[in-house]
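Q: I'm a student working through a structural biology exercise. My instructor gave each of us a protein and asked us to get a predicted structure, then write a short paragraph describing it. Mine is Aconitate hydratase. I'm not confident about reading structure output yet, so if you can add a plain explanation after the tokens, that would really help. Here is the sequence I was given:
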Amino acid sequence: MSANSFGSLDKLQVGDRSYDIYRLDAVEGSARLPYSLKVLLENLLRTEDGANVTADHIRALGQWDSQAQPSKEIQFTPARVIMQDFTGVPCVVDLATMREAVRDLGGDASKINPLAPAEMVIDHSVIVDYFGSPDAFERNVQREYERNRERYQFLRWGQTAFDEFKVVPPGTGIVHQVNIEHLARVVFDRDGVAYPDTCVGTDSHTTMENGIGVLGWGVGGIEAEAAMLGQPISMLIPRVVGFKLTGELPAGTTATDLVLTITEMLRQHGVVGKFVEFYGEGVHALPLANRATIGNMSPEFGSTCAIFPIDDETLSYLRLTGRSEEQIALVEAYAKAQGLWLDPSVEPEFSEYLELDLGTVVPSLAGPKRPQDRISLADAKQTWRRDVQNYVASVQGAADEASNESFPASDSPAISHDTNGDKPRHVDLNGSFRPHNRVPVTLDDGTAFELDHGHVAVAAITSCTNTSNPYVMIAAALLAKNAVERGLTRKPWVKTSLAPGSQVVTDYYERSGLAPYLDKIGFNLVGYGCTTCIGNTGPLQPEISKAVNDNDLAVTAVLSGNRNFEGRISPDVKMNYLASPPLVIAYALAGTMDIDILNDPIAEGTDGPVHLRDIWPAPEEVASIVESSIGQEMFAESYADVFKGDQRWAGLDIPSGDLFEWDAASTYVRKAPYFDGMTAEPEPVADIHGARVLAKLGDSVTTDHISPAGSIKVGTPAAQYLQDNGVAVKDFNSYGSRRGNHEVMIRGTFANIRLRNQLLDDVEGGYTRDFTQEGSPQSFIYDAAQNYAAQGTPLVVIAGKEYGSGSSRDWAAKGTALLGVRAVIAQSYERIHRSNLIGLGVLPLQFKDGESAESLGLTGTETFDITGVTALNEGGVPDEVTVKADGREFTATVRIDTPGEADYYRNGGILQYVLRNLIGK
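A: Happy to help. First, here is the predicted structure for Aconitate hydratase. I'll explain a few features afterward.
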């Protein structure tokens, strides 16, 4: 490393070792910066090259105006990239395809190689096919290998073909938990230079690493690929929201309750595109696991990151998880030398300020379809009764069945029409509301019961968000123990599962003697992976699924995850609630959401009714077991050979060679089409004429709506493609597992079963009006797009607020582009999806403040012309373009926010830009 224009290169002595570091105090103004901006400043100092990063960029960050709106572009070079397999497989497909494209354009294919560590954890492919039995884990893993052998062989090829690329095999853990427990360095040591660990990942919850002081966030797969190839990430110097924590969490509350409160606060405040940084005396009261839980939920409140500075608690966690004493000493010395050590008495300068007294946090849930919709547990029953009215299509009065019950009035009027014959749906009595449709069910084993609206069909301890936190996991196991001792078990209609984020969790369950109690009530280990949180819930028992669908029952799921979007968790479940692991178990015991769980008995025990307060564990007991049951040796053993895998992984046949041999018959891995016909020089940017609307969408359309990850529904274009290629329905697997095959993913774009395209009336699913056909009939979106393509008609999508929220899913942008969509016009965007659209050559436009499709009178039936886009050919970025829709004309803001993004768009996408640069060099 050479000194830069600030002369900041210095030595740091740690024990017997000396490291080169770039001193932040060489830059005027650095001392007042928030922790997160100090990390960015070091990044610029270390990568200054006079071109991408200049002295002016460094000064701009040092002189950061906390109150200014972001306008200054900088280039951020992350130290490493992390991936999971759903997003990682298409990354490797793209890299393999790029090698061929470079070769075909006369370049050196070996240049397509990660320049910094790139690590993948396979955690998204295990599905809960089997549950509630001691062999559930082994059977699910075996089924996972049967379904995904071809994908796993491809990934093993990638591990041998690309330098600096490593794969953590299936059955090991969830990417973000593996990251904070093992992969994260906190401070890097590379070639004798020490610098902050920074990491972007192909999963939006990469921000979990913010809890241990690592700056990073989720990006789309294509942006991650560019970062792997040495392309810096273009960004504006952000606003930073300071979130002050005071006090301590009261007894009976959990990290989940805290994070749902913070999510609600920050979503209401508005932090999209901003950094959030936590400070204050209350930070010291938060265990590292709680900090990681908060960081994990950053995409749910919309911020780029949600970070905690380094302190003694960080060091204790690094020591617990088996990091070397040399590494821990480096982290401490570096953080203190660079002003990155948390000092609660010092308040950095922030753009905006919020504050939370931890003592005011109450037990909570979130649902039924968004993480930010927090519900106090005391109000959960009443809120469910209000919300269920949006999910049950018809009502028939049944006052006689309610005559012996009295219910509080709902906040919303009950629906009063009946469209389903003689099947009673609700009780509507004197303004009271009681959902009701008891359906008799008998399982294969003879178990008989009645299934009703609100019954909990899925109760899952799942996801990186909470399973990384030993306090809530031990609390769940203790609650299970207390329940078993009182004679309780899960209700027979509840599909239960335990899918922790790493093997350490099951280790401390075994050591504490609590595992048998979880097994006793049906929470057997089903896998180490995301499972229910990403829609890998697996099928409900056939009898239950049939009863739900035949009778349109609004059953529920309760999960300890971070996402509960519509259509995500299970196709049979309409209402989904996020909760802490102990509450997941409590609702499995109760079996319904239609219960005041704080006051009503949750079940009948051997000695009479049992209340939640009777089995809720004391915080002192939880802390004592955490202290006695978790040791450093657990982490050392679990991660000793983390990349090795079991015999199944080691026994996979590995294709050889630097170029992949594509199998034309494969339905999992196919050569990507993004570089077909690509020339050495890009074509000029063109205006858009004669475009039709493919979909007109409302607010909070998530990347799950745009590109679902879960099951592939029979009868859809994706299902038809698989069947035409000889794939049986039982082997469809999920959309997520098929992301290496663009033919499946194009057909699955906008195919979520809960998508509501406003071009149609009261229709859910992947449908639109096809204006190429006489009468504009209802059609699958994929089929209509093919008809438009045949006529050479470009497409646009119209949307409301928060378009593209949720997962970092690059296929939401890839599929959009491959369907022929040239532009999206929305009221607002989530950060990652907007960036992904540009990375695929799709123009993101935004309605002016106060305007929307509705205010402008747009129905989606118009033909659109978008002019002014060609100004990009002159080197700049136009502030706005003119949109004409039949007789209406309006201006829309161009959401290409940086010069770097403009370069990507001019090239037709970020990968084309990177590829042309590599060839040019």
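A: Here are two points you could use in your paragraph. The mean pLDDT is 91. Residues 376-391+434-633 form a domain with the Aconitase; domain 3 fold (CATH 3.30.499.10). It's a good idea to check both against the output above yourself.
Q: Great, thank you!
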